[in-house]
Amino acid sequence: MTDVSAPQTKKRTAFQALELDTRLLGMIGAFLLICIVFNVMTDGRFLTPRNIFNLTIQTVSVAIMATGMVFVIVTRHIDLAVGALLATCSAFMAMLQARYLPDLFGLGLGHSMIPWIAIAAGLLLGTLIGAFQGWLVGYLTIPAFIVTLGGLLVWRNVAWYQTSGQTIGPLDPTFMRFGGINGTLGETWSWVLGLAAVAWAIYAMWSARRAKLAHDFPVKPVWAEVTIGGIITAGILGFIGILNAYEIPSRRLERMFEARGEVMPEGFTAAYGLPISVLLLIAVAVVMTLVAQRTRLGRYIFATGGNPDAAELSGINTRMLTVKVFAIMGALCALSAVVASARLTNHSNDIGTLDELRVIAAAVIGGTALAGGIGTIYGAILGALIMQSLQSGMAMVGVDAPLQNIVVGTVLVAAVLIDTIYRKKTGGR
Amino acid sequence: MTPLCEMRDISIAFGGVRAVDGVSIHVNPGEVVGLLGHNGAGKSTLIKILSGAYKADSGEIYVEGQRVTITSPRDARRYNIETIYQTLALADNLDAASNLFLGRELTNWMGFVDDDRMEAETRKIMARLNPNFRKIKEPVSALSGGQRQSVAIARAVYFNAKILIMDEPTAALGVHETQMVADLIQELKKQGLGIFLISHDTREMLELCDRVSVMKNGRLIGTERVEDVTEDDILSMIIMGKKPDQAA
Ligand SMILES: Nc1ncnc2c1ncn2[C@@H]1O[C@H](COP(=O)(O)OP(=O)(O)O)[C@@H](O)[C@H]1O
Ligand SMILES: [Mg+2]
User: Fold this and answer.
1) Which ligand is nearest to the CA of B45?
2) Closest ligand 1 atom to Cα of B45
3) Which end of chain B is less crowded, N or C, counting CB atoms within 10 A of the terminal residue's CB?
């Protein structure tokens, strides 16, 4: 038996010493390949700061929901209602801003509290609806497929009734800052945030290493840690640099100065920087990863997905766990509703249509196993990014809309096939 | 002497099947009580009532003389009743440490799970139970039957059990590992634990146990001290469902 010989003394290649996640590498490789191919096909228009900026803000809404879908699928459930729930939350928040708060509560249109009350109420509504669906699944043991298939019809049309099918807009200006281009941090703050992220990443690596050494666990060689730290630093600062390279068009800048009653100085330029919506996605990613890896809740989610009976015999309340997982999903749908409606600057009747499929596909392309127990937050976000790049790239190249969907569908199936083969080769992980 | 743990007149039915029908067993400190019987006799169901997996339709449970109600695995753990299930009850996608501490994770001052400390504790107990065990960080699906079994045993032993339930703990093991389990049982017995042991191997049971109870079709046929009976007596109880003195 090989595992009896001390593994630390085994000769390892330099690549193995980095202890990189090969699946993550594979996904990043696929993503880069897509980017390069489209860049060539569009004569360099795909990898411009402007297009990368647009790509990220288009990905946010689906990516936020995909992180929640990871938990749902890991616990062996599914949520087909996320797009419809997004619509219900979006309609509710739009009506709060445009009608309910001004008319019923007498807050003057444009009152500074309106967007915040709307967001808080929207998040609460999403969480409650999610928890209710989770209760139907966990306590009344109706299959999640059925509960959320019903939910898909119910919430899509609850949204319709709230607005009588009308488009509600424009939304509150502060609210719209969460949509993307209308709310960015600007150059300086983007750099500050990027550097803070680098500092935090290095501190996290350093303290993890120190904790391992304290327990006498094997650690990576120092050069490997430095290499990985360097890659992370380059990645973060490169991303900020690209976003900061996208400059606000001068006509738009002029209007911004005019609005403040000033005149734009000659030769003035400014960059958009990091969009608030992307910051929101990063925050969601960090929190969800912490929940998945560092909390009891996350541990129980994965244990229940791996073996529900074992989880139950270990004293885990798997029914309540189901309620919590769907409540998280609901809250994230509401958050995505903020981003999606703010990006469109209004609530329209068809908002979030087919998002359930995009979200599930993102999670699955990102390596979440429908059999349960396996999935990562970063994988789901990468999955969302890969899908959005494919879609945008094909649109730029001028591929017919029907063919675009054919390609995306094929990629989804192929991704799962590759993943299945990969898991068999690496021993069921 | 009050028994460490006593199950009195326990019954449970699934649909029409009376899986356990009026069974009483008990265990004293430092004693090993064996449960024998054919597949489907009701052994696993009986001990699952004690471990909180099932709720009895009727009957009473006493721990150190006190009447207790056990309606969930959490309750059982509170009374220091630990169980090694026949199915092992491991989450295959998690590593040994996560399985060992499942439901009772060690946390740091911020309330986050402390994986490093759990790994260190797991290394410690595995060094004692199965010194060859090295795959601490791999999902337990990558382990052999014997290694998985030692994770399940470690989980039951780690938390200072007073009453230990072992449902066919040696079924997946080779000769060497089976001997290790036998040694462990002797050691735990010396520490004063009460152990309910289920196995199909009658000879092994006569060696390890102080008393054996035989079940058939959900009913208790009888409980005998091992020095009072022969292997043939036990076999005839299992097969005929009669006590030796009743056998003609
Ligand atoms: N969860 C359950 N639902 C229905 N029937 C069950 C369940 N668990 C056990 N049984 C039935 O109870 C009887 C006893 O089973 P079990 O306790 O597993 O036997 P043993 O462990 O002695 O082999 C069997 O007839 C079995 O089919
Ligand atoms: Mg059994």
Assistant:
1) 1
2) 17
3) C
**What are the residue ranges of helices labelled H in A9-81?**
14-17, 22-41, 49-74
**Does B43 contact ligand 1 (Cβ within 6 A)?**
yes
Question: Are the Cβ atoms of B91 and A214 closer than 8 angstroms?
Answer: no
- Residues B73, B104, single domain; the answer is no
Q: What is the pLDDT of residues B55-92, one digit of tens each?
A: 999 999 999 999 999 999 999 999 999 999 988 899 99
**pLDDT given at position A8:** 43
Q: Is residue B186 part of a domain?
A: no
Task: Fill in the DSSP letter of residue B141.
Answer: G
Residue B13 in domain = yes
Structure tokens at A23: 């699946």
Dist. CA B37 → ligand 1 center (Å): 12
Residues of A whose CB is below 8 A from B45: none
Q: Report how far apart, in Å, the C-alpha atoms of A229 and of each of A222, B55, B87 are.
A: 10, 53, 43
Same domain, B2 and B120: no
Residues whose CB is less than 8 angstroms from the CB of residue A103 and which lie 6 or more positions away in sequence, other chains included? none
Q: pTM of the full predicted structure? A: 0.90
pLDDT means over runs of 10, chain A (429 residues): 41 69 85 92 90 93 97 96 97 90 73 88 97 97 96 95 89 88 84 91 89 83 86 89 84 79 76 89 95 96 96 94 98 97 92 93 91 92 94 90 88 85 69
Question: How many residues does this entry show for chain A?
Answer: 429
Q: How far is CA B11 from the centre of its chain?
A: 19
Question: Does B108 lie in the same domain as B57?
Answer: no
Q: Are residues B106 and B130 in the same domain?
A: yes
Kindly state the DSSP code that residue A300 receives in the 8-state scheme: H
Is the CB of B14 within 6 Å of ligand 1?
yes
Name the pLDDT band for B248 (thresholds 50, 70, 90): very low
Q: How many domains does chain B have?
A: 2
B129 lies in the same domain as B167: no
Measured between alpha carbons, how far is B35 from B42 in angstroms, rounded to an integer?
A: 10
Phi, psi of B158 (to 5 degrees): -60, -40
Q: Which class for B110: exposed (0-12), middle (13-18), buried (19 or more C-beta within 10 A)? A: exposed
Per CATH, which fold does A19-183+276-425 belong to?
ABC transporter involved in vitamin B12 uptake, BtuC (1.10.3470)
A126 closest CA partner among A70, A179, A88:
A88
What is the domain extent for residue B16? Answer: 1-80+161-179+191-248
Return residues with CB closer than 5 A to ligand 2 (ion).
B 44, 86
Provide, as residue numbers in chain B, all residues whose Cβ is less than 8 Å from the Cβ of A309: 87, 89
Q: How confident is the model at residue B245 (pLDDT cuts 50, 70, 90)?
A: low
**Assigned domain for B86 exists:** no
Q: Are A316 and B119 an interchain contact pair (Cβ–Cβ within 8 Å)?
A: no
Question: What distances in angstroms separate CA A122 from CA A115, A334, B10, one per listed residue?
Answer: 10, 6, 52
Span A133-144, pLDDT tens digits: 999 999 999 999
